[in-house]
Design a protein that fits this description.
The complex is a heterodimer of chains A (about 375) and B (about 130). Chain A is an alpha+beta fold and about 375 residues long. Chain A has eight helices and 20 strands. Chain A is globular. The chains are: A alpha+beta (about 375), B alpha+beta (about 130).
């Protein structure tokens, strides 16, 4: 199992570690719920070094990305971040990711840890006709994420006042703890937040820890993947492998805003057009439950006639709403807002209601 | 933390005698720590008859669901209603306000099959090695 450059720090600080995407990662330090509140009310810091980073460099970088990405890369200016999907010909999802445009011929892709190798292979297969160079730089790249209403004040103290004007979905170069970093206004929590990239050249190991510690010293609370999962689920951010995968398509996952069918051509376009034309049979919807018991991945969802109409993809307890929430693919006819359904948990059915998502308000643009 | 005056089960419940053939059951500090933040506790109805080792409910944390087992046989005479709204009491005060059920013993001799504080401490120190 792979360890991040913060592994020793986590151990020293009594983090509980679990396997995630081939990495040994902290799931919690103190308490998942306390860490959750740190992000919603103050500022929390996540080790996300497990995420994959792939560079796309060359004269035809934009042309290549237009072909493999569902979103429109041509609208990006240098310094922009764009969420996109990569799809197979049949419309299934290879991965969801962020594209950072460094310059006309230089892009950075930030992909899911467990998908990094698969994505790289997939991109290599597609690149044959394009003048681009691909590099998987995940091993030498550190990524940490500062999230919460207090994140801006901390970043200004550490990286200087110019960081205060960095808008959502933009990135800039800067310095933290005397180290050159790239700071992007992105995240996976629904809060104001920054992701800090450190591209280590000849591997000065403790650098990542110095950057991390300097942020902790400003009052950020270290947070694990447990809190991160609740935070992202309250925002209805998809988790690859749970809510989306090669057998689901972006349209039924509600990610159609990141699919630009009007674009010239891209992998999966024909299939996605057909799926759209035929109409969806199911879609990913958010449900709240009256009680506190958690509807977990794979649990069945029933309508009032007792027929199975869907399946839970992710579920958790929402501390903000003080009740359980979940996502599931639901038959379109049963997926209307306020529709009452039942979810089977340990052999008993419990009432659930289709609700608007995100489950709690987003503050990413604060 | 393993209070000396309680008895323990191998499945990490504690048992406290509270007068005439009546005992209180909860889960240990070690158990709540392992489970993490508890968000839901399902408890039995009052008057339910439980056999020794029978599951009487579940404790659910963000991470996992865990069955709760009755270390003794008997009838449920009351349950901790406060856990409905504040399941986190099990995390914060596992041996006091985080108690779960009170049972009228059917076979008081079963108590002798439970672990002492010393034995339980040994069990968890071996388990966590």
């Amino acid at each position: 199992m792979k360890q991040t450059k913060l592994y020793h720090w986590h151990q020293q600080h009594k983090a509980r570690l679990i396997e995630f995407g081939g990495w040994l990662m902290p799931v919690q330090y103190s308490s998942i719920i306390d860490e959750y509140w740190a992000v919603r009310k103050k500022a929390g810091l996540f080790d996300i070094c497990h995420m994959g980073e792939i560079t796309v460099i060359g004269d035809q970088a934009e042309k290549f990305l237009q072909q493999v990405m569902t979103n429109d890369v041509s609208v990006m200016a240098p310094g922009d971040c764009l969420y996109s999907l990569m799809c197979y010909d049949h419309g299934g999802i290879v991965d969801d990711l962020f594209i950072n445009k460094i310059s006309r011929h230089n892009y950075l892709l930030v992909v899911n840890a467990a998908n990094t190798e698969k994505d790289y292979q997939y991109l290599m297969e597609q690149k044959s006709f394009y003048d681009v160079m691909l590099n998987d730089i995940s091993e030498s790249t550190s990524l940490i994420s500062l999230q919460g209403p207090g994140a801006r004040d901390i970043m200004v103290k550490l990286a200087g006042p110019e960081i205060a004007v960095l808008d959502y979905l933009h990135f800039a170069k800067g310095q933290v703890a005397g180290k050159p970093v790239t700071i992007s206004r992105t995240g996976y929590t629904g809060e104001l937040g920054y992701e800090i990239f450190y591209f280590a050249q000849p591997e000065p190991e403790p650098d990542t820890e110095k950057i991390w510690q300097s942020i902790i010293d400003q009052g950020a609370i270290p947070c694990g993947l447990g809190a991160r999962d609740i935070l992202r689920l309250e925002m209805k951010y998809s988790l690859y492998g749970n809510d989306i995968d090669q057998d689901t398509n972006p349209l039924k996952a509600g990610l159609d805003w990141a699919v630009k069918l009007e674009k010239d051509n891209f992998i999966g376009k024909t299939s996605l057009e057909q799926i759209k034309k035929a109409g969806l049979s199911r879609k990913l919807a958010g449900l709240t439950m009256q009680g506190r018991q958690i509807a977990r991945h794979g649990f069945h969802i029933f309508n009032q006639d007792g027929k199975i109409v869907g399946q839970v993809t992710s579920g958790t307890f929402s501390p903000t709403l003080a009740k359980s929430i979940c996502l599931g693919y639901i038959r379109l006819a049963e997926a209307a807002l306020d529709n009452k359904l039942n979810i089977e948990i340990r052999g008993e059915k419990y009432p659930a209601t289709i609700v608007k998502t995100p489950f709690v308000p987003s503050h990413v643009r604060d | 933390m393993v209070p000396k005056d309680l008895k323990y089960s191998k499945s990490h419940e504690w048992v406290k005698a509270v007068g005439n053939n009546t005992i209180v059951i909860g889960i240990t500090d070690y158990a709540q720590e392992e489970l993490g933040d508890i968000v839901f506790v399902e408890l039995p109805k009052v008057e339910r008859q439980l056999k020794q080792q029978e599951s009487f409910g579940v404790a659910e944390s963000v991470k996992a669901v865990s069955d709760l087992f009755s270390p003794v046989s008997g009838m449920v005479v009351s349950v901790n209603e406060a856990l409905g709204k504040q399941p986190e009491l099990v995390n914060k005060e596992p041996y006091t306000n985080g108690w779960m059920i009170k049972i009228a013993l059917a076979a008081p001799t079963e108590l002798s099959s439970l672990l002492s504080a010393e034995e339980y401490e040994k069990l968890i120190s071996e388990g966590s090695k």
